[in-house]
Specification:
Keywords: Coiled coil. It is a single chain. This protein is mostly helical and 350 residues long. Among the domains are: 85 residues, no CATH class; 88 residues, no CATH class; 35 residues. Helices cover 47% and strands 9% of the residues. It has 14 helices and 6 strands. Strands 1-2-3 form a 3-stranded antiparallel β-sheet. A 3-stranded antiparallel β-sheet has the order 5-4-6. Helix 5 packs parallel to helix 7, helix 10 runs antiparallel to helix 11 and helix 13 runs antiparallel to helix 14. The protein is rod-shaped and about 110 Å long. The chain binds zinc ion (ZN) (2 copies). One zinc ion (ZN) binds next to loops. The site of one zinc ion (ZN) has 7 residues, from loops.
């Protein structure tokens, strides 16, 4: 057990020490009541409890916190005892989530408020789905005001099937279903439907626009090859029956689906069932820039205008995605998988 002693005791502060026993459990040794900044510790070491009585008799009671994470508990106790010179203001999402779970468990959110504000505002640019999960969990447990905006960003970045992965995840499963399955997943599904409607209504508008424009070159009626304006015959077919080309409604619809196919948006079933909204938006942007068509209408060709409009509308829909209020998790306190330790609506930090 000696080899597991942390820095906490070497700071000439004998109020507490976190030790590790050979099995890796956290053992909290307490010598005074500085620890009482937390209401949970207050109860544990209060005058009415045996550990509190031991403290007042000058003893150093040991509490085995076998379910707790040693690193998170060390950070937590060091901050509570102002031994935080080398604790970083930025933390990776996973250790931050673990720390947040412990802060929630021991009701230390208020005491760590300045730290929480720093950690939540300094979070690294995250893109991996699991990182989003950890960061959301941290913000939820900390009752951080960044939670709502983070959930909006997660709506854009998470693939539609993320819930089934998180439900099986040992840590991310702590996020209440009211947030993951009900709010976040529902928002992703609804937005995917909206994007799909945009894709379909663009086809509808292209069909309605009947204007015809000339296109450069001639087409061979035998083989469909396109020849330059100066061509007199199709040599492979030995055919002189060449037709001038027209940008028509049918042509534009066919070309629209050719572009969607090239950008892997068509057939739509697979991408709309598996991709994150941001990935789909990127493909719509590609469809807009993939434009090679030329006709007499130039910039006013309906195909060009509709592809631009489609991409703009997709971007706009993503921009309008709303955050998810942290209060959505409140139902979780009524018998769902996880409850916040205090069983009431979390107060968002100002
Ligand atoms: Zn030909
Ligand atoms: Zn055209």
């Amino acid at each position: 057990m000696d080899s597991g002693e942390t820095k906490a005791e070497s700071h000439n502060n004998t109020s507490y020490a976190v030790l590790l026993d050979p099995e890796g459990d956290v053992i909290l040794v307490v010598a005074d009541q500085n620890i009482l900044v937390s209401s949970v510790f207050s109860k544990m070491f209060g005058p009415d409890f045996s550990k509190g009585i031991q403290i007042r008799h000058g003893d150093r009671p040991c509490v085995n916190l076998e379910e707790d994470d040693p690193k998170a508990m060390e950070s937590l106790l060091r901050i509570l005892h102002y031994q935080c010179a080398d604790i970083s203001f930025s933390m990776e999402p996973k250790p931050l989530a673990v720390l947040a779970i412990h802060c929630d468990k021991y009701n230390c959110i208020a005491a760590l408020r300045p730290w929480i504000a720093q950690w939540c505002s300094n979070h690294p640019g995250i893109t991996a789905p699991e990182q989003f999960g950890y960061m959301l969990l941290a913000a939820y447990m900390f009752r951080s005001p960044i939670f709502s905006g983070l959930a909006a960003e997660a709506t854009k970045q998470l693939a539609p099937g993320f819930v089934s992965v998180w439900e099986e995840h040992e840590t991310l499963a702590l996020l209440p279903e009211t947030i993951t399955a009900d709010a976040l997943s529902e928002q992703i599904t609804q937005t995917l439907e909206r994007l799909h409607q945009e894709l379909q209504s663009t086809e509808g508008r292209l069909r309605e626009q009947k204007a015809r424009y000339t296109m450069p070159g001639f087409v061979c009626v035998n083989c469909g090859r396109i020849h330059p304006d100066t061509a007199k015959k199709c040599h492979p077919c030995n055919n002189t029956d060449l037709f001038s080309r027209r940008c028509t409604s049918d042509y534009r619809v066919a070309e629209y689906f050719t572009i969607l196919r090239r950008c892997e948006l068509w057939p739509s079933l697979e991408p709309f069932a598996t991709l994150a909204l941001s990935d789909l938006a990127f493909r719509f942007k590609c469809a807009q820039t993939d434009y090679k068509h030329q006709c007499g209408a130039k910039e006013d060709c309906p195909l060009r205008r509709e592809l631009e409009l489609l991409s703009e509308r997709v971007q706009w829909i993503l921009k309008c995605i709303k955050g998810i209020p942290i209060e959505k998790g409140v139902e979780a306190t009524h018998g769902r998988r996880h409850s916040l330790s205090h069983g009431h609506l979390p107060t968002v930090l100002g």
